[in-house]
Here is the input.
Amino acid sequence: MASTVDIASSFIEGAPPGELADVVADVKTLTSDGPDIIASLAPAFARYNETQLATVKLPGASQEVVVSEFNRLEGNRYFDVESQTSFEVDHVTQEASDAQSYVLESQNADLVKSLLKLLGAHAREHYPNSSYGVYPIENDSAVAILLVANRYSPNNFWNGRFRAVYQVPVADPTTVTGKIQVDVHYYEDGNVALNTNKPISLSVPSVSAESIISRIATAERDYQEDLNRAFVQMAEGAFKGLRRQLPITRQKVEWEKVGGYRLGQDISGGKGR
Amino acid sequence: MADAQFDSALDLLRRLNPRDTKQNLQAITSIVPDLTEDLLSSVDQPLEIRRCPKTNRDYLLCDYNRDGDSYRSPWSNEFDPPLEDGTVPSERVRKLEVAANEAFDVYRELYYEGGVGSVYFWDLDDGFAGVILLKKGVTPGAKSSGEWDSIHVFEATDRARMSHYKLTSTVILHLANETEALGEMDLSGNMTRQVEVDLPVESDASHVANVGRLVEDMELKMRNLLQEVYFGKAKDVVGELRSLASLSETSKERATQREMIMSMHK
Here is the structure.
C-alpha cells in the first residue's frame, strides 16, 4: 500500500491552479495524527512548481519569474535571462531569495535574447497576466521557450492556468515541438475541471526568432479557436446525447399516470383514467 | 480533530481533479481510516452497474442498497450475493419503491432514451427516505465520450395531510474528446443542489408523484446549470487567460470609445 508521504505527494502534485496553499492546509490536517510530513514532501513541491511553471517574485522586485526544469541550475537555484539573475527557491513556500547577478553563457545567447524580446511582446498582446522565459537547454544544443498565464478568482470560485512549452533544436531550428495545456477549476457548489493537452509540432519557414515566435503565436491562436469550437461541439454532441432538456413530446412527465396508479387506491378506478 | 479532518477531506476532494475522486477517496481513507464510513456516505461517485440474476435487468449500486458486500436489486428485492437477513424496506415502503421504480423507468426512457435507473427506499421513524439513481453513457466518436450520473437523495417527513420533502441532488458529468486538431480535452465534474418543500399528500400514490416532480424540476435546473458552467464558464475562463483579440488594440478601441462618449457629453 502507498505510504502517507506518497499519497500526500500525489495530492500536492494534483493541486489545481492557485489552490496549492489550500491543498497543503488540507494535507496538514489529514496527517495531523502523525509527525509533520511537510518537510518530506519537498520533492513533490519541487515537481509541482517545475511542471506547473510556478512563478516567484524576485527579492525587491515586482516582476515574476518562471520556475521550470529548463532554468534550473544546481539544487534549488534557478536563473532568469531577462533580469540576468539567479535565485534560490523555497519550493514549499514558493518564495525566491538570495538573488545574484547571472550572466548567460551560451553560444545561442543572441537567439535567446531575440526570442525573449519577441515572446514578451507576444505575451503582452494576448495574455493579460503572464510570465515567460527562454533558456538554452541540452548542453546548448536547443532552446526552450515557456509561457504561463494565470488568473485566480477564488472569491468567485474559479481559477485557471494556461501553459505553453516549446523546444527549438539549434541545429535544425525549422522544427519546433512542444505542448499547450489549459487547466480551469470551477468549484462553487461542486467541482468542475477542464484539463487539456495539445501536442504542438511546427515547421518554421526560416531560421529567425521572428518566424519562430510568429508561428508559435499562430499555433496558440488556432488552438484557442479549436478549443472554443470543441466547447460548442461537446454541448451539441455528447451532452445532448446524455439527457434531453425535455422529452420528445415537449411535455413534462404526467406523474399521476406513470406508476402511481398501481398503488391500491387507484386500481379500482383505473379504467376512468 | 475528527471533524476538522472530515472537513479537510471534503475540501480536498472538492479541489483535486473530479475525474480521480474514487482513487483520492481511497487514498484519504488509507491515511485516516476512521473517516471511511462518513466519507463513503457523503461523497458521490460514478455509479456502478450490476445485472440482477433473478430478473436479468441492470440496476445501479450505491451505499443505500448495500449491506456488507451484497447489493439489493430493486427489481427482485433480493441481495446479490444472497444474504439471509439483509435489510429490506417495510412492506408499505417496498410497495412505494416498486411504484417509484416503474415511474422513474418511464421518466428515464423519456429524458435519457436509454441508460440505467434504480430507486431505493427505506423506512424512517416519521416517514421514509429514498434515492433515485440514473446513469447514461455515450460514445459519439472513437475518442469522444460522455457519462452522466444523477444521484437524488430525499427524505419525506409526515405532517398532517402534508409531507415535508428534503431533496439533495448531485449530477456527475464527465466529457472527454480527443482529435488531431484539439489534442486531449477533458471536462469533468459534479455539482450539488438542495431543495426543501411541503407538499400535500392524499395517499401513498401522492409520494411518487411529488418526488417525481421534485426530481424532474431539479434535473432540469441542474442540466441548465451544468450547461452554463461546462460550456459557458469554463470557456470564459480560457478567454480570461488568453485574449484572441490583441490586447493593445482592445485597449486603444476602449480609449477611443471613452473619448467619443466624453465628447458627446460636452
Q: What stands out?
A: The mean pLDDT of chain B is 94. Residues 21 and 103 of chain B are 31 Å apart (CA to CA). DSSP finds six helices and ten strands in chain B. Chain B touches chain A through 94 residues (CB under 8 Å).
